[in-house]
């Protein structure tokens, strides 16, 4: 485990992946909860971001409530994977893009403001890559929230 | 729910994340040409109406050591899928669970769950436990571990665009090396 987090950073990640304060000075609210000060919280969070552990403080959305989205997959010849993956990632509608171990080896989530924009984006990906994009839109979710418990050994 | 123009714009603004200053909501209000109070109220509405299902620190789980990331897919009869999905979602190591449409002739699987772990041995043991616990031995299934992460960024929700344009290369965020390690 090469990750080096301060105790404050660990506590921030444990406590504020959800329910982030919506007070006018949220970092001060957090600071008083954790017994430190606002500047210390802001610099601890900036450091997490600089080191690539934090993507952003932001929102994740319930599928279908904020716009349109679909999981999608492609079967890409191995020797073209890097190239095609880069082409797919180039579209700002892509929010996750992974190589997975299967014949369908490239998996990504396409998001857009509405269904028409989503369709347009998927068609544009097919045109750009010359490969079919299989769609697996969500029917129903049973667990969506993706927060991580930090379990240190 | 039908989103207001301001809600759309706030969602779009949040893609870049909350600014890390002392008054982040005032900073956003400034960008959107409204007041701090309106931004906070609009954000709280989106949370209350469950448009936003989580508001907080969005971490790069692979950088933090969660390298063994398995997508497990099952082919379950449509009638049974909701109950099995709910039971699956209740298992402590399942991070995401949903039912999706099948792709005729290509992909027969309709029930998905994700397990994020630090090592494959543990994740494989959890998958065996899941199959035993839910009695899914006879259900066709597959486990797809991730190998490389090419992209992780915010969804492009917000105001609709007239057309999709290819972004300039600078808009594609570089993935830090540690995130791209083969898991």
Automatic annotation (TrEMBL), chain A:
InterPro entries: AsnC_trans_reg2, HTH-Siroheme_Decarb, NirdL-like_HTH. Keywords: Lyase. The keyword Acetylation does not apply. It catalyses: siroheme + 2 H(+) = 12,18-didecarboxysiroheme + 2 CO2. Signal peptide: none annotated. Pathway: Porphyrin-containing compound metabolism. The keyword Lyase applies. Residues 11-53 form the Siroheme decarboxylase NirL-like HTH domain. It comes from the Bacteria. Its EC number is 4.1.1.111. Residues 68-136 form the Siroheme decarboxylase AsnC-like ligand binding domain. Belongs to the Ahb/Nir family. PANTHER family: SIROHEME DECARBOXYLASE NIRL SUBUNIT (PTHR43413:SF1), TRANSCRIPTIONAL REGULATOR, ASNC FAMILY (PTHR43413). This is siroheme decarboxylase. It comes from Thalassospira xiamenensis.
UniProtKB/TrEMBL annotation, chain B:
PANTHER family: SIROHEME DECARBOXYLASE NIRL SUBUNIT (PTHR43413:SF1), TRANSCRIPTIONAL REGULATOR, ASNC FAMILY (PTHR43413). This is siroheme decarboxylase. It is an enzyme of class 4 (lyase). Transmembrane segments: none annotated. It catalyses: siroheme + 2 H(+) = 12,18-didecarboxysiroheme + 2 CO2. The lineage of its organism: Bacteria, Pseudomonadati, Pseudomonadota, Alphaproteobacteria, Rhodospirillales. Keywords: Lyase. Pathway: Porphyrin-containing compound metabolism. InterPro entries: AsnC_trans_reg2, HTH-Siroheme_Decarb, NirdL-like_HTH, WH_DNA-bd_sf. Pfam families: AsnC_trans_reg2, NirdL-like_HTH. Residues 8-52 form the Siroheme decarboxylase NirL-like HTH domain. The keyword Lyase applies. It comes from the Bacteria. Its EC number is 4.1.1.111. The keyword Lyase applies. SUPFAM superfamilies: Winged helix' DNA-binding domain (SSF46785). Belongs to the Ahb/Nir family. Residues 64-150 form the Siroheme decarboxylase AsnC-like ligand binding domain.
């Amino acid at each position: 485990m090469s990750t080096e987090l301060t105790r404050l950073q660990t506590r921030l990640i444990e406590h504020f992946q959800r329910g982030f304060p919506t007070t006018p000075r949220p970092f001060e609210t957090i600071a008083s909860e954790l017994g430190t000060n606002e500047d210390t919280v802001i610099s601890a969070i900036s450091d997490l971001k600089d080191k690539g552990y934090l993507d952003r403080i932001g929102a994740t959305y319930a599928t279908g409530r904020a716009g349109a989205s679909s999981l999608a997959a492609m079967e890409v010849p191995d020797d073209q994977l890097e190239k095609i993956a880069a082409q797919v990632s180039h579209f700002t509608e892509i929010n996750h893009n992974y190589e997975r171990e299967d014949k369908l080896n490239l998996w990504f989530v396409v998001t857009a403001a509405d269904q028409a924009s989503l369709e347009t984006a998927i068609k544009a990906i097919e045109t750009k890559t010359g490969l079919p994009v299989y769609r697996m839109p969500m029917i129903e979710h049973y667990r969506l929230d993706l927060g991580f418990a930090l379990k240190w050994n | 729910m039908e989103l207001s123009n301001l809600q759309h714009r706030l969602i779009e603004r949040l893609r870049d994340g909350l600014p890390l200053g002392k008054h982040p909501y005032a900073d956003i209000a400034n960008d959107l040409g409204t007041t701090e109070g309106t931004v906070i109220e609009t954000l709280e509405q989106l949370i209350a109406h469950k448009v936003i299902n989580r508001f907080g620190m969005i971490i790069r789980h692979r950088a933090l050591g969660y390298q063994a990331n398995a997508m497990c897919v099952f082919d379950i009869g449509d009638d049974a899928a909701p109950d099995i999905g709910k039971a699956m979602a209740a298992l402590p190591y399942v991070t995401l669970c949903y039912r999706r449409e099948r792709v005729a002739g290509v992909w027969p699987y309709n029930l998905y769950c994700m397990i994020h772990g630090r090592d494959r041995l543990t994740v494989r043991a959890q998958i065996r436990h899941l199959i035993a616990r839910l009695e899914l031995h006879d259900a066709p299934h597959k486990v797809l571990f991730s190998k490389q992460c090419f992209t992780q960024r915010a969804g492009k929700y917000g105001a609709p665009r007239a057309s999709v344009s290819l972004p300039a290369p600078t808009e594609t965020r570089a993935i830090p090396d540690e995130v791209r390690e083969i898991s």
